[in-house]
Design goal:
Blueprint (H helix, E strand, L loop, with lengths): L3 H13 L1 H14 L12 E2 L6 E2 L2 H7 L1 E2 L6 E4 L2 E7 L5 E6 L7 H20 L4 H15 L5
């Protein structure tokens, strides 16, 4: 449970940084969008039931979020997204961008630094505390598509 004072700070930061958080959502949505699949990943076929998936969008619609495992695993420059087929087989797709590498990751970092700079104008907290709070907001904002 988040202590009341910490939740108050997070609420104030959400208001202060609302425009930056909207931009963050746009960046994250693009990373997770149709353009994110690496060439050659589609069409994809389940090796158990042989169901075909022509696109990343179709794959996400026709499969379910894998609840019992890390749904995304990040590697240098890529991410793997795990989902369950209707036959309960686990399927994986390699995506082009992770949040740690690439142009959009760089935009996220610039946006994070801008948020810290803006928050420092309004709060007298040490920079490391502001960075921790803003990191919480970025983590909340990066909820995965289910």
């Amino acid at each position: 449970m988040i202590p009341k004072l910490e939740e108050d700070i997070l609420s104030q930061l959400r208001v202060l940084l609302r425009l930056e958080l909207v931009e963050l959502r746009h960046i994250d949505q693009f990373i997770k969008s149709e353009q994110g699949a690496i060439d050659g990943e589609f069409p994809k076929q389940c090796s158990c039931c042989y169901q075909f998936f022509d696109t990343l969008k179709e794959w996400r619609i026709k499969t379910t979020w894998k609840e019992d495992k890390t749904n995304r695993q990040f590697e240098l420059g890529t991410a793997r997204e795990y989902r369950n087929c209707n036959c309960h087989s686990t399927l994986v797709v390699k995506l082009q961008e992770s949040r740690s590498e690439g142009v959009y990751a760089d935009r996220r970092r610039l946006l994070f630094n801008l948020c810290v700079k803006n928050a420092k104008l309004y709060y007298s907290f040490p920079t490391d505390i502001l960075r921790d709070k803003i990191r919480i907001l970025f983590t909340e904002n990066a909820g995965e598509i289910k």
